[in-house]
Specification:
The complex is a heterotrimer of chains A (about 400), B (about 325) and C (about 290). Chain A is about 35% helix and about 20% strand. Chain A has about 400 residues and is an alpha/beta fold. Chain A has two domains: about 15-155 and about 295-370, Response regulator (Rossmann fold), CATH 3.40.50; about 160-285, Rossmann fold, CATH 3.40.50. In chain A, strands 7, 8, 9, 10, 11, 12, 13, 14 and 15 form a nine-stranded mixed β-sheet that branches. In chain B, about 55% of the residues are buried. Chain B has a two-stranded antiparallel ribbon. Chain B has a domain at about 40-250. In chain B, helix 1 packs antiparallel against helix 2 and helix 2 (about 35-60) packs antiparallel against helix 9. Chain C is an all-alpha fold. Chain C is about 75% helix and about 0% strand. Chain C has a two-stranded antiparallel sheet with strand order 1-2. The radius of gyration of chain C is 19 Å and the shape is globular. Chain C starts with a helix and ends in a 9-residue tail after the last helix. Chains in contact: A-B, A-C, B-C. At the A-C interface, helix 3, strand 8, helix 9, helix 10 and helix 11 of A face helix 1, helix 4, strand 2 and helix 10 of C.
């Protein structure tokens, strides 16, 4: 992020991004300064800008702003103004921060966040206040399950969704039994649930579950166990620094050539530079991949790289699509944020032309999307095929589904 | 309420003005839901910090596991709250405080055998164990935590004077609790018990040779502090409507510790001042810049270098430790 | 457990324990000798890892990067002691806690400003980048063995420095009686500055040495901070020997905890600490 306005109430995107050389270069800043009749639409971005997930928060923010800038700084005829808040990925402050951005800064739309624990607090505030909310990452199942609500959408994935197809993939490769390994925390358990369901349905057998205390990264003891158990394959979920270390340790322990490793895409996303040769050839499933031949993906990548001098990742795609979803809804309501029914109905009906491929929105408000099989080649997660076409989260416990 | 001679007048004045300001705020700011909630949270943290100061400032017992009781009370409330109706305030509060008292008694019996830095670390150890129990327990909501769906219901034999769903009502309940805890602690410290506690901090050996069962005194203080922390935790969980394991984390304990030291330990108003200053500063800095942590860090370093006895020392000189207290 | 697997797990414990020792030794020195509680110790571990990442990329040689990194961290340690820490010697421990907590925030943000928030990796030096097969399926990374060797060497060097040299004698004396040492005409201020720099350099060195296997990421310091404190406390504050024993114990508890009692794996280190302290309230090796 080039500008560092965190919660300036008055700054519009245009002013805020004036310092952003990248955006200026695209020429979109020269939109005529119209005197807009309606007040600006306040978009709250409550995301992590410090701590472990800061890179994700920045990618989402960048791409969201990119889309809005492409639309001349307006959606549904209304100029956008940002209120940005660092949630620190600190669940203890989740409710306080969500309250602050909704009840003090009075945002019209709430976008966020990455960390599921913080999301739990945000969902609560969203439900109570009724503010239109779009989740650009956190895959925590309940947000579009038990706690689903008409005003809450997600532009990313549910934990279940990203890994459910993996079992089928592994079975097709002939791995009839496997060991599961992940961190012992809510996301890890949700991923496990999704994987187990998919794998056992096609006759796979999980011979052993291994859980590491979160966020411990000493894998050696469990790798030794895996080597002793000699399963057909290993399925895993880790992310960030832990994913880097796990993949490197797995390789260094000599397991890589002998017991194939699978996981969902978070194991190899944003981590490939750090993982180096250890990650080469790994197969993972996710709702985005490198080398998707969609025109939308190409233009998105070009525009993002040009604006921010960075390659976009899956998190950027999710941020971009959050903005697209907002655009669809608000355009249908001609910029009237109060017409929430109309907005919701429009998003529910929409087909979003995402860089990841077109997707629709389920009745629980989660994307119904293709999950891709990808393989690590160099520093990219190359598209191999579609692991599951139009996969929809089961949305268990959601009264709208 | 104001003129305690042990406390500098300026500080007492600040306290009175502050409390009065808190009391009238809802009249003007009732529409400002965020600020109401923010101040309510500050007061809850102030209660939490005061409970810790009883240990640190008066008993000389630096605990880095105090959040354990804060969190346990919240989780007790969550467990007792059905999905569609509120738990009875009296029953759930009594249960929460009871759980905290019991936990503090058991932990206290073990940890009070150690002292100094070892005490810091064993209290941390027990809190971390409690943290992992909650974090790894599916029934308690695991790492994502769980909602307290409905606020507790306050009723006297079936008569409900007001509903805690009304933020203003809840706000005053918290304000009343804050004032209550403050006076309770002042009473406690002015009592013979308080004198012995302060004496133990100054010289435990002497107190023991004078015939005081120092261990029992420390244990009682430890349990009281645990119960008061639980009171704060109960209010926090009811206010947020959500509990998660971070309530028991060492960061939470550390934050309370920061508030106590920042405000001035061993001064009755110090923790309140510290809680207010830290929360307010965070609010201002996060509103202002993305690099707020850098500024907060610099501020903390400066306070240590410039105000050797915490912010309370801004309002007049006073010997630290509260030995002359009461 | 298969005896071969048992031995391998023991090796894993040893390797983890030794790296822990390296981080914790600096902490116990600063703590025991200077009486300073340094919460920012984990931050220096993180800074070390990031330095290894940048310097390796800049100079192209991991070992040269290590050397330069140590020089830089010594300089940082000296500067910090001169600027801040020396003002804390006569203050209550709690102000040290507060100040060094402030430092954590500052260093984390500085890290974000200098290096950004991405995850990075450091390449294992080419000639060590291979593994020895132990069983049919399992190999052991040679770099890990070398790393353990370096940790052992450092432990021996520290023992020698403290027990057998004049500097060590002054350090030991300074820890017990500051005034007397001063009266003997030893510049205690300088001595403390050196000890602080040494402690910081040890933490940073641990971060650098571990970087090829641990990867480099935001917040990595917080993870080692608490466990290093646990090591220091179990071992007995100020005791380097105690830190070594405690680190190995934690290594064993962590490794076997994960395998044998995975339900409570997160707690094993704390359980161990609580048990030790209830048995010996001042740690295993009380400072002589």
């Amino acid at each position: 992020m080039n500008d560092n306005n965190v919660s300036s109430k008055r700054r519009s995107l245009l002013k805020g991004a004036a310092g952003a050389a990248g955006l200026a270069a695209t020429g979109i800043l020269h939109a005529p300064a119209v005197i807009a009749q309606p007040a600006r639409l306040k978009v709250g971005l409550m995301l992590p800008y410090t701590g472990t997930y800061a890179a994700l928060g920045n990618a989402i923010t960048n791409a969201f702003k990119l889309y809005i800038a492409e639309k001349g700084g307006k959606v549904g005829g209304r100029e956008i103004e940002y209120v940005v808040l660092d949630d620190e990925s600190e669940p203890a402050k989740g409710v306080d921060n969500a309250n602050r951005i909704v009840n003090r800064d009075k945002v019209d739309v709430l976008v966020g966040t990455v960390h599921s624990g913080v999301q739990a607090g945000m969902v609560k505030v969203s439900r109570e206040s009724g503010v239109l909310s779009i989740i650009p990452n956190a895959g925590f199942g309940a947000a579009t399950g038990q706690l689903c609500a008409p005003n809450i959408f997600r532009s990313s994935f549910s934990n279940w969704q990203t890994i459910h197809p993996l079992g089928k993939v592994m079975m097709e490769k002939g791995h009839k039994s496997c060991v599961w390994i992940s961190w012992k925390y809510a996301a890890g358990e949700e991923m496990f649930g999704g994987f187990k369901e998919g794998y056992e349905k096609v006759g796979g057998k999980i011979v052993k579950e291994m859980w590491l205390p979160f966020p411990n990264v000493e894998f050696q003891a469990l790798l030794t166990e895996i080597a002793a158990a000699k399963p057909d394959a290993v399925a895993c979920f880790f992310a960030g620094g832990g994913a880097v270390k796990f993949v490197k340790d797995y390789d260094a322990a000599g397991l890589k050539g002998k017991i194939p490793l699978y996981g969902n895409g978070f194991v190899t996303d944003g981590t490939l530079q750090a993982q180096g040769s250890s990650a080469q050839g790994l197969l993972t499933t996710l709702h985005y991949a490198d080398g998707l031949e969609f025109p939308k993906d190409k233009t998105f990548r070009l525009a993002y790289a040009k604006a921010y001098k960075l390659q976009p990742d899956v998190y950027a795609v999710q941020g971009y699509d959050a903005a697209q979803m907002l655009d669809v809804g608000l355009s249908a309501a001609k910029g009237d944020i109060k017409a929430q029914k109309q907005i919701v109905a429009a998003i529910e009906k929409a087909t979003i032309d995402s860089p990841r491929g077109r997707f629709t929105i389920s009745r629980a408000h989660n994307p119904v999307q293709d999950i891709y099989l990808r393989q690590v080649v160099g520093e990219s997660n190359k598209f191999v095929g579609i692991a599951w076409k139009n996969l929809s989260d089961p949305a268990r416990g959601c009264s709208m589904a | 309420m104001a003129m305690h001679d042990a406390q500098p007048r300026a500080l007492a004045l600040v306290l009175v003005i502050g409390l009065a300001g808190l009391a009238v705020f809802p009249i003007f700011g009732a529409d400002e839901k965020f600020y109401m909630q923010f101040l309510a949270k500050v007061m809850v943290m102030a209660i939490f910090a005061m409970s810790l100061d009883l240990l640190i400032g008066y008993g000389g017992l630096v605990s880095l596991g105090h959040a354990m009781y804060f969190g346990l009370a919240g989780y007790t409330l969550m467990s007792l709250t059905p999905e569609y109706e509120g738990a009875s305030l009296w029953i759930s509060l009594a249960a929460a405080l009871g759980v905290c008292a019991l936990a503090a008694l058991v932990v206290g019996l073990l940890v009070l055998r150690t002292s100094g830095i070892y005490f810091i670390m064993v209290t941390l150890a027990f809190a971390q164990m409690a943290y992992y129990v909650v974090h790894d327990s599916k029934y308690l909501g695991g790492s994502d935590g769980k909602y307290v769906y409905v606020k507790p219901v306050l009723s006297f034999f079936g008569w409900q004077p007001f509903s805690l769903d009304k933020l203003a009502a809840f706000y005053y309940v918290i304000l009343g609790t804050l004032a209550g805890v403050y006076f309770l602690l002042r009473l406690l410290l002015a009592s013979p018990f308080g004198h012995v506690l302060v004496g133990i901090k100054a010289n435990e050996h002497r107190m023991r040779s004078l015939g005081f069962p120092t261990f029992s005194y420390k244990l009682v203080a430890f349990v009281i502090a645990g119960v008061l922390a639980g009171l704060a935790g109960y209010l926090a969980a009811a206010l947020d409507g959500l509990v998660n394991p971070e309530l028991l984390s060492w960061h939470q304990s550390g934050q309370a510790l920061m508030m106590v030291i920042l405000g001035g330990m061993g001064t009755p108003a110090g923790p309140i001042l510290g809680a207010g200053a830290l929360k307010l500063l965070e609010l201002l800095l996060t509103s202002w810049t993305k690099h707020w942590q850098l500024l907060l860090g610099l501020f903390i370093v400066l306070v240590v270098l410039v105000f050797p006895n915490g912010l309370a020392s801004l309002f007049g000189k006073r010997k630290r430790g509260g030995a002359e207290h009461g | 457990m298969d005896p071969a697997i048992f031995l391998i797990q023991l090796l894993n414990s040893l390797q983890y324990g030794l790296l822990l020792f390296l981080v914790a030794s600096g902490l116990t020195l600063i703590f025991g000798i200077m009486g300073i509680i340094n919460l920012a110790h984990g931050s220096f571990y993180m800074i070390g890892a990031y330095l290894a990442f940048s310097l390796t990329a800049a100079v192209g040689n991991f070992w040269l990067a290590l050397f330069l990194g140590v020089l830089l961290s010594v300089a940082l340690g000296l500067a910090l002691e001169w600027l801040l820490i020396q003002r804390l010697y006569h203050r209550d421990h709690l102000y040290q806690v507060l100040l060094t907590y402030g430092l954590i925030l500052i260093f984390e943000e500085a890290r974000s400003l200098i290096w950004g928030d991405d995850v990075h990796g450091v390449q294992v030096p080419e000639f060590l980048n291979f593994s020895i097969p132990l069983t049919e399926t399992l190999s052991y990374q040679v770099y890990r063995v070398v790393m353990s060797g370096i940790c052992l060497l450092l432990a021996a060097a520290m023992y020698f420095l403290i027990q057998r040299t004049r500097l060590g004698m002054m350090i030991r004396a300074g820890a017990t009686n500051r005034e007397m040492v001063q009266a003997l005409g030893i510049n205690i201020g300088l001595l403390y500055r050196l000890v602080f720099a040494l402690g910081i350099a040890l933490a940073a060195f641990a971060g650098m040495l571990g970087s090829p296997i641990s990867s480099v990421y935001p917040g990595m310091g917080n993870q080692v901070l608490i466990v290093s404190f646990v090591v220091v406390v179990i071992g007995g504050i100020g005791s380097v020997r105690g830190a070594l024993v405690a680190a190995l114990l934690i290594g064993i508890a962590d490794t076997f905890g994960k395998v044998l009692v995975p339900q409570i794996a997160g707690m094993t280190a704390y359980l161990l600490m609580a048990a030790v302290l209830l048995w010996r309230p001042e740690g295993l090796f009380k400072r002589a």
